[in-house]
Amino acid sequence: MQTNVLEYLEHTVGRVPEKIAFSDGTQNLTFSEVFHNAKAIGTKLLHDGLSNEPVVVFMEKSPAAVNAFFGVLYAGCYYVCLDVEMPAFRIEMILSQLTPRAVICDAVTRPMLAQYGYTGEAYLFADCVTGEIDETALAAVRKAQIDTDPIYIVFTSGSTGIPKGIIACHRSVIDYIEQLSETLGFSEDTVFGNQTPLYFDACLKELYPTLKFGAKTYLIPKQNFSFPTKLVEYLNTYRINTVCWVVSALTMISATGTLRTMKPEYLHTVAFGSEVFPVKQFHLWKEALPQAKFTNLYGPTEATGMSCYYHVVRDFEETETIPIGRPFRNTAILLLNEQNQLAGKGEPGEICIRGTCLTMGYYGQPDKTAEVFVQNPLQTRFNELIYRTGDIGQYNAEGELMFISRKDYQIKHMGHRIELGEIEINGGLCEGVEAVGCIYDTDKGKIVLFYTGSAEKSAVASYLKGRLPRYMQPNLIRQLEAMPHTPNGKLDRKALAAIYKEQQ
Q1: Residue 382 to residue 384: CA distance in whole angstroms
Q2: What is the pTM of this model?
């Protein structure tokens, strides 16, 4: 039985040692180099007395940064990734929560540590990988480890403004990688194109299947995602055949018309998630890549990545929403109504998750953990935790799970309960509209719609009058040059609210 994610690397390195594992187009690391470097880093940390504690990896996004993650694991510690593009105050708060004794850095990031108030040990990656390897010490660590030992902490935003660190263990990550790989059909021939920052759990989709199968991952430089043509050229240059991207990264290509003149020639597997994929934009991708397999993924970080999938195997009208389908094997979804009972047929309810996929909660925040990792109300005979996602879903007539909205995106306006997502979907169907985002001004009772594209505001308003009831009509429509997104590519509603406030 596998109990440690490093077993993926150890099984693969003997089979394809000189194959490139991770690359950004400039720096390449083979499996043998990754294996050697990770054990050297692990040895250095062990010899300096680090054990079963957080080690921060603060490096520019690169194959070396990925390699550092595995080095931390060899020491029996768990990694926390920080990035130079993160706001300074966020880095400071995370370091303050962790108080780590060690940070692995590079020549660019090492001089920055002092400004964040860090006074612990700073290890240069380049120095660590040239050190000796103590196989006896590494073996002793492995012998003592179990599958519920932590592997990483990923920090998400907190409602109080303080980031929440979500802790995952080897068991939940292994379970996730096994189910995801089976669902999407990864193999040794898979060539991933990574889009997400390394400090989000979304990168698990590429990093660990690469180790498992002896596949290959390209860390696509962030600047390419601002230039659709350049991005598609990158995909073709490196023959990338599999992407697991947030929806906004895909629509950035399709909404600009790039697919009419240039297509990702090698792409045969497209997984998307984190947001609702507008069917109008999905059709453009399906038309450009008719033989590709498209899969909608859904899941929260608190449940180790993605929990549900839907292979898009039928046609959808532009007004429809693509289902999130069914849970991965070994994962269960409970759709609970306000009475904590299973929602009836066609009835909306909160999506709750049970199974091995559940993470270990929030680092150093037991009260926050207890709010959402709760006893299964349907199980009264023994202790069983579920995670309450805060997402509303329901089953359609085909028995497929549909994402409706976040609890936070439901508003009460003119006596009606409204999903802002429904307004966004309809706004996105208007000719000349590329992207849409909605917020609600609670104080003034106004629905505010933001959009990008060439359409006139009057045309958007007229179009929506023909599609939505009066109580769902936006009170204000604002045109933007670009839609704000969070670092992992989701629509940034807080930024929209800030823009709205500035314009008052």
Answers
A1: 6
A2: 0.86
All residues at 6 or more sequence positions from 379 whose CB lies less than 8 Å from its CB, including other chains: none
Q: Using a pLDDT cut of 90, give the percent of the chain over it.
A: 77
d(CA 315, CA 322): 10
Instruction: Please name the residue that has the structure tokens 């907190």.
Output: 158
What's the rounded Cα separation, in Å, for the pair 159 and 143? 40
Direct distance between the N- and C-terminal alpha carbons of the chain, in angstroms, rounded to an integer: 60
- Number of Cβ within 10 Å of residue 263's Cβ equals 17
pLDDT tens string 232-249:
999 999 999 999 998 889
Q: Say whether 485 sits in a helix, a strand or coil.
A: strand
Exposure class string for 189-222: b at 16+ Cβ within 10 A, else e: ebbbbbbbbbbbbbbbbbbbbbbbbbbbbbbbee
Strands (DSSP E) contained in 250-384 are 269-273, 293-298, 308-311, 326-327, 331-336, 349-355, 373-375
Name the 3-class secondary structure at 321. coil
Q: Which residues of 468-478 are buried (b: 16+ CB within 10 A; e: fewer)?
A: beeebbbebbe
Are 60 and 84 contacting, i.e. CB atoms less than 8 angstroms apart?
yes
pLDDT of residue 348 exceeding 80: yes
Question: Structure tokens of 59?
Answer: 């490096």
For range 449-453, the mean pLDDT: 92
Going from the C-alpha of 45 to that of each of 84, 131, 135, 154, 454, the distances in angstroms are: 23, 11, 13, 21, 55
Residues present in the chain in total: 504
For 46-75, what is each residue's pLDDT tens digit?
Answer: 999 999 999 999 999 999 999 999 999 999
Q: Please list the alpha-helical segments (H only) found in 322-412.
A: 366-372
